[in-house]
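Review box. Two proteins, two foldings.
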Amino acid sequence: MVDAKPVFQVLLHLLFLCLCSANGVQSFKEKKVLKLQEFRWRPHGGTRSTVCLSQKSRKEKGATILEIKHRDYCSGKIVDWNKKQQKRLIFDDLHVRSLQSQFKNRVSGRIKDASEAQIPLTSGIRLQTLNYIVTVELGGRNMTVIVDTGSDLTWVQCQPCKLCYNQQEPLFNSSASPSYKSVLCNSSTCQSLQFDTGNSGACGSNPTSCNYVVNYGDGSYTRGELGSDHLSLGATPVNNFVFGCGRNNKGLFGGASGLMGLGRSESVSLVSQTSELFGGVFSYCLPTTEATASGSLIMGGDASIYKNSTPISYTRIVPNPELSSFYFLNVTGISIGGVALQAQSFASGGILIDSGTVISRLAPSVYEAVKAEFLKQFSGYPPAPGFSILDTCFNLSAYQEVSIPTLKFHFEGNAELNVDVTGVFYLVKTDASQICLALASLSYEDEIGIIGNYQQKNQRVIYNTKDSKLGFAEESCSFI
């Protein structure tokens, strides 16, 4: 009599091979559980000032660590949360459209001066969409500023101010700081604005001062003169730090005092001005929007102080002479639930990573491939109407938790960005009854894609400008 046990084992093995061979990829898809109760929005406690001014800092192994928070907790009480969520996406769309316009103008060489077109001095378009803040000390006064890897010039609102928006802290008073100095219009720093930002510094009514202009696509702006003062990043002093002293500012900037520019410029960027201290290396871990959540901005490259739960994988920062202030990467693929997608646009490479963009933008062919595979794996859930720029939405009012496919970006050098479960869906309603796939399509195939901060949450992202590489590692964000 033939032993049935080996035959049974062979049949099981054949069945397993059949299940795993579909599309040449494993059929047991990679999934993560999203507990909707934890994903729901909760009002933050405390007043705006106490939340913003509670930010901490410390120095460890030669690195400076600043607490980083979501900007919502520096903007006062949210009266209509759903309306705010919709506005955020509208502003984000304006931000991306303005970026794309600037890319085309820079590459074509049509922009010669700030007066020729209403484009930003730096790439940060609308501070309403730049969602993360840190506190630094400038001229002996605390300043809460928005973190922007797409901007070079750091600026704050200054007294006397012809026109200023409402901010949480008192305006910076340059005359009250004994260490403040004006940057001269004939200085190399003033002249470097043309190369670094595409807009030249100019002499104003006071011929010794270097004026700057930042114009945003929606009519928001900041204007003033360049100055230098003593900057403290936690316990780390930075002498003669060059920044913009804004005397005329208008727009939706929330309660922040200004902006911190972490772009790639060789002179005015915070990264370049602190290169001798930190070697041109900085990293951040962006927290979720929960009231108790906080991440960290680390200036310095000692990886032993990171709290990453996965190894750091590095990819090359791609040089772009026409857009030298931005951080470009070569994307080689995207996978959904372990299924590698096929799209022709992956071969063309370049994608921008930006802390000032909320929702990642993909070429239309890539987005359609992502959407189709995601819907295939996340099937059986009731659809919901689209929400602003997001068109793949679901009604989850009958569910307590859902298993969602993993989302990964793959880059040159086998680096991976594993999108956190909270970065896959965008919360449309406060009770998590309606959510949308948190990705959007560009208008045209040839536009530059962008990886937004929503997909970077709970990741340690390491920028090494000296060695022109960028790293990713999963991390549960916490300042402590």
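Next protein.
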Amino acid sequence: MDLASLLSSFLPSWISVCLLLGFFSYLGIVGSVLPGKLVPGANLADGTRLHYRCNGLLSLLSLVGLLVIGGWMDFVSLTAISDRGLELLSTTFIFSVIVTLILYVAGRKSNDRSASLKPHISGNLIDDWWFGIQLNPKFLGVDLKFFFVRAGMMGWLLINLSVVAKSIQDSKLSQSMILYQLFCVIYIMDYFFYEEYMTSTWDIIAERLGFMLVFGDLVWIPFTFSIQGWWLLSNKVELSTAAIVANCCVFVIGYLVFRGANKQKHDFKKNPKALIWGQSPKVIGGKLLVSGYWGIARHCNYLGDLLLALSFSLPCGISSPVPYFYPIYLLILLIWRERRDEARCAEKYKDVWAEYRRAVPWRILPYVY
């Protein structure tokens, strides 16, 4: 593909706009009407707490079912996303910029003094646009922060499924593609099965909604986490049995650490007396958990996430660094985020945090970092 053709493939079309808006409309409607567990969020600064309808798994399964039926009846093309990947990327990026500019303007004009909608204005336009002004802005009653996270994770799966359909159509379905897709499906389905755990994450609790989160959810997650699938469409990789077994081991270990650590944290926040690994939890300062995975490293969930990211790339072999963009990026991101978390916690907990660091000296990987 020459440069002119490459650049033209990024130009948004009305079809890509309709695909994107149709996807968002579907999520907004079914997210409001389908049954789901109503989960209370964290207590906000003013004592209030938001509630989240966790019906993401049902919404996702319903959407996939509708697409399969539509594809079988020739109403929709299952390769529509993979055929228009680059223009969907640019369309979603433009949408993210427009949405965050609207959020910035609306936030500046807001007089709401509640913890979730009170404007936090630094006076620096770029900073306020990037990090956001309001904690939990809404549109037509929909919590946008929770909505965009859900859209990003579903978008990742839809891109992957369309890539699979494209590989089958082109007779390029390989063992490596199947392995990568299997790991991603398990991970994404697990995310929605435990969707309520998302309500206790730092992004939902403390980060304001600006370009950083909107772009990260709508563009970065679906379009960069799926790079391995795109790469396997054009590159054939033959894996040995030993490589497949090793890849599966990395995925399983990563999944156990990631899911186990997040479950322990979520359960502890709901019930500080809940048993961890069959024993009463050990706590420092009444709030900082030092039992289970959280007694091994202060951010052991990040280790699980990194192992999972690595397992998504290993099916691509080692002939190119391109499929390893995601784990490399995630390593940089999580170290940066871990440093930010450490600074916030040191300021918040003071001497208690120093005691916690002595009890759990390792940040992410024991005996290494």
